[in-house]
Specification:
- By secondary structure, the chain is an all-alpha fold.
- The protein has a single domain (2-112), classed as Serine Threonine Protein Phosphatase 5, Tetratricopeptide repeat, CATH 1.25.40.10.
- The chain has 6 helices and no strands.
- The chain has helices spanning 2-9, 16-28, 32-44, 51-63, 67-79, 86-96.
Length: 115
């Protein structure tokens, strides 16, 4: 987060690409509270997430086993009338076709209960 503070301290305004890269890094590092806080800060600053960003976040969260959090961002994709990318759909199908994850599918938005 020090890098992010340095960006804004120099008067630079982060865009959706900057936020996406930082958020995916935080997810990979397991810093999920920091990730959530950064996402909220982004929205408060007026930077609107795009489909590419939200799909990337969902894939990163699913890859880290954060299924409930991924469900929250799937809801955001739906709220914004975005579509799932093929790679996100493929990951969802692959993940929930495994026996150990079938019960987790219930934590996703209703639309995804076919998995």
């Amino acid at each position: 987060m020090d890098l992010f503070a340095a960006i804004t301290a120099h008067g630079l305004v982060p865009n959706v690409v900057t936020y996406r890269l930082m958020m995916e890094n935080l997810i990979q590092e397991g810093l999920l509270d920091e990730f959530d806080n950064l996402f909220l800060s982004m929205e408060k600053s007026g930077c609107t997430p795009n489909s590419y960003m939200l799909n990337g976040i969902v894939r990163s969260l699913l890859g880290g086993g954060e299924i409930m959090r991924a469900g929250a961002y799937l809801s955001k994709i739906d709220e914004m009338n975005f579509s799932l990318e093929a790679s996100t759909t493929s990951l969802l199908i692959s993940l929930f076709s495994r026996e150990e994850y079938k019960n987790h599918a219930k934590s996703l938005p209703e639309k995804y209960h076919f998995l």
